[in-house]
Design a protein that fits this description.
about 280 residues; alpha/beta; Aminopeptidase; eight-stranded mixed β-sheet; three-stranded mixed β-sheet; 11 strands; binds zinc ion
Length: about 280
């Protein structure tokens, strides 16, 4: 059974709206400790994400989600948490970050599963990724393709969006973390700000409300219209592969907290040197 260490203490060290999230080393360590969960004994059996093909891209590439099922007694009423990357195919370090995350999740004891079902999509737009371009193979911006009041009438147009909407139907989301680049900021609607705060504080990314230009038909707008909290995680700017371990290092504990609702104690250890040596 998972024990959450006094999560409510978090409120005491949370800064007021509008302040920078930056914390001193001591305050940050205290925050991490307060958000940590531990198990009585970390069993040897590891978490094994289940790969599920939820559709095909315009060019017939598989659309894949890696699913971490909750502990068995929570299956029927699981809270579905999504982490998705590379809606824009040129934002390549979003994919690499979720690939590192999946690697680390596979090293966690199964005892850290809880009431959440975690759905990880490292490569939302495989055709665009392949060509290192933002749009899909059909030149559709997959983060403007959602059926929203401000979006295009024909939305959704892309097979990638239709497949994702079917997945959302099958596993209704409690929250979606949508990884992009390059603005190095966490974005959330005002009403979901509290939900986004731990991510900002754990990563030292500032917290904002929008990117500063209109995004009609975006997943964020779709979430707002349908009561789904969507937290947009804009990672740091570099698209270079060599920068991926550093960008992951910035957000790794925040990702664990986003996925599990707490930071598994076993996930503390950074593997940065290992990744840099590869
Ligand atoms: Zn993007």
């Amino acid at each position: 059974m998972i024990r959450i260490l006094s999560v409510f203490l978090f409120c005491c060290c949370a800064s007021r709206a509008g302040e920078r999230p930056y914390l001193s080393t001591g305050a940050w360590q205290k925050l991490v400790e307060n958000l940590t969960c531990s198990v009585e004994a970390e069993g040897k059996k590891k978490i094994v994400p289940r790969k599920y093909r939820y559709g095909k891209s315009a060019q017939n590439r598989p659309l894949e989600v890696f699913i971490i099922e909750p502990e068995p007694e929570s299956r029927d009423e699981a809270e579905n948490v999504y982490l998705i990357a590379a809606q824009h195919g040129d934002e390549r370090n979003t994919t690499r970050v979720l690939e590192y995350f999946l690697r680390e999740v596979r090293q966690l004891s199964r005892d850290y599963r809880n009431e959440r079902r975690i759905l990880i999509i490292p490569l939302y737009n495989p055709d665009g990724y392949k060509k290192k371009k933002r749009l899909s193979a059909e030149d559709i911006d997959l983060n403007r393709d959602f059926p929203t009041k401000d979006g295009a009438k024909e939305n959704p147009q892309a097979p990638e969006t239709r497949a994702f909407l079917r997945l959302l139907d099958r596993y209704p989301p409690m929250i979606i973390y949508n990884l992009h680049q390059p603005f190095r900021v966490i974005l959330a609607d005002r009403e979901y700000r509290k939900l986004a705060e731990p991510f900002a504080k754990l990563s030292d990314y500032p917290l904002g409300e929008d990117v500063g230009y209109p995004t009609p038909g975006s997943l964020g707008t779709y979430g707002r219209e349908n009561g789904i909290p969507v937290i947009t995680v804009e990672l740091a700017r570099s698209m270079k592969k060599a920068a991926a371990p550093f960008i992951f290092e910035e957000v790794r504990l925040a990702l664990f907290h986003a996925a599990f609702g707490c930071i598994p104690r076993q996930a503390y250890r950074s593997r940065l040197e290992e990744y840099l040596a590869e």
